[in-house]
């Protein structure tokens, strides 16, 4: 019986393990099997899959990317460009930690820089970690309020004190490196472009940003990374004010994916916005996610919120007059630009005195030390872009595998949907009997 219990425990998921343990004797073998599942949660994706590794103050951080298509030309410089946008020490409103974040590609490419279809491993060595900022003061025994210190300790019974270990934003280096490859795949597949910008700092909101035309150059033209110059100045003044007081500040990053084809996603558990939400909410300090109009849409009626359809006179494709859905309807992309918003909390490590407790349960006051971002938003831009790009490539691969394995040769097919779609069979004849004034009557009986 012990062997049967152990075998069942090894192959089940963590949730299944917990349920089984309620009904079987807790033997040493069962405990050992349960321990095999610890440390999970470091991978993302199904077909296009990443696994990140490394701690903030360890020897380095990196990623293993599996599922990259073969015969794709990849250069170190392309990956480094995205990492340079993420790295610390860029301006006075980011952490002054001085890291070049120089990437090394360890596997997955041939001598000509062509992907082999095998796992691509990338590493960035840590050079400027200062563990004494954490180990030689009260931060070595006291939990930082709203940081992962206490919850990591509660889960694992041990934690990487210096730099926060895996809870540090330094973990996102692997995501951004893999995201750079995803960005190239999207560009070659369908000219898809993924761009993010800081849309809100506290109550200061960007104005007049056209989601169809703003560019990366406009985003990177100021240290706040907001393409609206006037709003960026006011945002910067607010961040500086908070920074000088030893405090921190949060806000919102908006990400737009253009030229995404219709059909990505699924209607139930694997909705495209659900996977995008998981991707973006896994970024350190992320505390909220909206797709399209999000919560603001709850203030509208159905008539006001619905994106009405029309036929594009140039392409013949079915389009929407507005994009309150954010490019996703029913969990599936509709061919319009995908728009998501990610809320980031203020950095938890601040230079002001706060009440907390030590590991052994003593109440103390703590003033944070070390080098930290007073506002994570500017450096979160490439992180959000990377996670959105990774999610889209994964969904493209699943779409091709399931729905495009065999060509659709049906005589009657739906009119092409979305901005990038084109009708190639000329003008379509009317096949429906419609009421006067071009209206169509429908009886809808949904649960």
Structure commentary:
Helix content is 29%, strand content 17%. The chain has 447 residues and is an alpha+beta fold. It has 12 helices and 16 strands. Helix 1 runs parallel beside helix 3 and helix 4 packs across helix 12. It is globular, with a radius of gyration of 25 Å.
Overview in brief:
The protein has 447 residues and is of the alpha+beta class. The protein is built from twelve helices and 16 strands.
Chain-wise SSE layout:
Elements: H1 2-11, H2 14-21, H3 28-35, E1 43-44, E2 49-54, E3 60-66, H4 76-86, E4 103-105, E5 120-125, H5 132-135, H6 149-156, H7 172-190, E6 193-201, E7 204-205, H8 216-219, H9 229-244, E8 251-258, H10 272-281, E9 286-291, H11 302-305, E10 309-311, E11 318-320, E12 328-329, E13 332-333, E14 338-344, E15 353-357, E16 363-367, H12 377-403
Antiparallel strand pairs: 1-2, 2-3, 3-5, 4-5, 6-7, 6-8, 8-14, 9-14, 10-11, 12-13, 15-16
Helix pairs in contact: 1-3, 4-7, 4-12, 7-12, 10-12
Task: State the distance separating the first and last CA atoms.
Answer: 47 Å
Q: Main sheet: which strands, in order across?
A: 1-2-3-5-4
Helix-strand makeup class: alpha+beta
Put simply, the count of helices is: 12
Beta percentage is: 15-25%
Shape: globular
Quote the average pLDDT. Answer: 86
Q: Rg, please? A: 25 Å
């Amino acid at each position: 019986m012990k062997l049967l219990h152990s075998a069942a425990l090894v192959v089940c998921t963590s949730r299944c393990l917990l349920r089984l343990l309620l009904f079987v004797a807790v033997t040493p073998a069962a405990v050992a099997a349960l321990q095999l599942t610890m440390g999970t949660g470091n991978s993302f994706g199904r077909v296009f899959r990443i696994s990140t590794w490394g701690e903030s103050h360890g020897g380095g951080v990196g990623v293993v990317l599996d599922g990259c298509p073969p015969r794709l030309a990849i250069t170190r410089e392309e990956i480094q460009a995205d990492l340079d946008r993420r790295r610390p020490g860029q301006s006075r409103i980011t952490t002054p930690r001085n890291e070049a974040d120089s990437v090394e590609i360890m596997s997955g490419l041939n001598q000509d820089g062509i992907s082999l279809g095998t796992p691509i491993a990338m590493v960035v060595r840590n050079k400027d970690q200062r563990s004494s900022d954490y180990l030689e003061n009260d931060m070595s025994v006291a939990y930082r309020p709203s940081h992962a210190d206490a919850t990591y300790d509660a889960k694992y019974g041990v934690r990487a004190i210096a730099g926060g270990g895996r809870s540090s934003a330094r973990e996102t280096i692997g995501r951004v490196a893999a995201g750079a490859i995803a960005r190239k795949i999207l560009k070659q597949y369908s000219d898809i472009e993924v761009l993010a910008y800081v849309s809100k700092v506290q109550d200061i909101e960007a104005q007049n940003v056209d989601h169809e035309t703003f560019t990366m150059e406009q985003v990177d033209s100021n240290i706040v990374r907001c393409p609206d110059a006037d709003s960026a100045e006011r945002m910067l003044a607010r961040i500086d004010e908070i920074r000088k007081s030893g405090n921190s500040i949060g806000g919102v990053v908006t990400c737009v994916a253009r030229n995404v084809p219709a059909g990505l996603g699924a209607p139930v558990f694997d909705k495209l916005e659900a996977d995008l939400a998981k991707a973006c909410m896994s970024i350190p300090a992320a505390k909220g996610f909206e797709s399209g109009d999000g919560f603001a849409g709850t203030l509208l009626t159905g008539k006001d919120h619905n994106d009405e359809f029309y036929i594009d006179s140039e392409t013949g494709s079915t389009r929407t007059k507005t994009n309150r859905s954010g490019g996703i309807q029913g969990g599936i992309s509709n061919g319009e630009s995908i728009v998501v918003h990610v809320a980031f909390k203020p950095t938890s490590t601040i230079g002001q005195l706060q009440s907390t407790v030590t590991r052994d349960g003593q109440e103390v006051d703590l003033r944070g030390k070390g080098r930290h971002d007073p506002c994570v938003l500017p450096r979160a831009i490439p992180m959000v872009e990377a996670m959105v790009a990774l999610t889209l490539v994964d969904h493209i691969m699943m779409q091709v595998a399931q729905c495009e394995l065999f060509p659709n040769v049906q005589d009657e097919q739906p009119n092409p949907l979305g901005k990038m779609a084109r009708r190639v069979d000329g003008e379509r004849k009317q096949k429906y009997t419609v009421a006067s004034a071009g209206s169509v009557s429908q009886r809808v009986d949904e649960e």
